[in-house]
Amino acid sequence: MKNVRSWGVSAVVAVLLVACGGGDPDVPGTGSPAGAPTTKGTFTAVVSFGDSLSDVGTYAPATSLAGNGTAPYFGGKFTTNSATGTVWVENLATSMGIVVTPAEVGFGASSVKCPAAATPALAGTCTAYGQGGARVTDPNGIGHAGGALTVPVVTQIANHLTRFTSFKDSDLILVYAGNNDVFTQFGTFAATAAQVQADAAAGKLTADQANAALFNAQTLAQGEMKKAALELAALVRTQILAKGGKYVAVMTLSDIADTPFGNSLPASARPVLTDLSRIFNLWLRDALTNQPVQLIDTFTIFKDGYANPGKYGIVNNTVPACDATKISAITSGAVTDGSSLFCNSTPGAPYNGLRTGADVNTWQFADGVHPTTGGHKIISDAFAAQLHAFGWI
Question: Residue span of the signal peptide, if any (predicted)?
């Protein structure tokens, strides 16, 4: 995607202001939520909605050692899986003395709602709704065609309300979504950009025509991210706050360009990826202005972590800890992209998929975009610090 021109967020906002006459003081994204609790909560449940970053084991059956969907599993979470390979949602819940389990587990045509309910004492713990591949409202998330459930956030929330009727004051509600909308829109943009540049190289388009086409493609992608952000904010307002949600934290998106995947892109394409997260964050903030929630600015938090890895005990934040070649061998060639869903870090196990020399605690990324065990600890520590700052824990 050489020669892609990036038209940044500032340029898009400038266009919006011109369209409004240039003098409108209501600049999108400059407002803030207001009215959220400032007192410590008495939490009995952690309720999380989102995607693979918050997935505590939805797709474990896909990693069945027997190959038939039954336990034991060698993977199941998008991290460096092991007995201690937990994701940030689990870390945070554990620090609060709360048990959280998947709201649904399955793959393909088979799934089970709240499998932990087989043990009656755990029936109320199935409040981790995040699923790998899930988008905000579109059920056809990343990996859906290959068997991933990708239940969108709109349905995740509806499923919670169906089961529990409403939210309780004792629920800590965490909403972290939009990443897969970024990947989807970036993929569409990248395909268009490749075609535009091929046409330009073949003399079918002039340089000006190519740049105009690229601008239109990027603007379209940013428009879809605005739509996703407004949809998520509407869900927070009408389906969480209006249904009893009191302690509600909503996460912005980090800069996906600061991942091994992002770093693999041409320099001209990385700003496009960055701007999709920024556009989402801008409109999410705008639509939650004066709403009684707290925003956690992961974009800024993670920027610091990426720029100062040593501050967080990280020695490698550029190379995935999971070895794609090993994972391909373990799965008999079924998984070739090195997905951390199938990456186990148990020392000496025949299904260990770690890269030689990798350390799950000091390497940040398990695969191209997902954190290791140590990477997830950085996230949970950062979010816990934010919750302390809010006065909630």
Answer: 1-21
